[in-house]
């Protein structure tokens, strides 16, 4: 975005081009970084609802698995004495 302005400098301004090159390059990199970060932020904002829904689903699944594990453990404890007798 800033490079075309640099290219349009008049000849007398090009004498200072070396002094301007580093700040111009840094400004260009900063501009590109800002654009990239803005795009990534937008993508994250759009993904947030589905990530929240997936988290809720995972929490529900974890609770169900914990309940099932506890039930299985209880059943194992109930059956263990019977199996030891057999």
TrEMBL record:
Top-rank taxon: Eukaryota
Biased composition (Basic and acidic residues): 75-86
Region (Disordered) location: 65-86
Name recorded for this polypeptide: Uncharacterized protein
Species the sequence originates in: Tanacetum cinerariifolium
């Amino acid at each position: 975005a800033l490079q075309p302005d640099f290219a349009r400098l008049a000849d007398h301004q090009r004498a200072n081009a070396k002094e301007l090159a580093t700040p111009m390059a840094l400004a260009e990199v900063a501009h590109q970084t800002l654009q990239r970060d803005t795009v990534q932020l937008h993508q994250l904002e759009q993904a947030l609802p589905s990530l929240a829904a997936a988290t809720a689903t995972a929490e529900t699944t974890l609770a169900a698995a914990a309940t099932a594990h506890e039930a299985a453990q209880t059943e194992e404890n109930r059956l263990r004495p019977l199996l030891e007798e057999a």
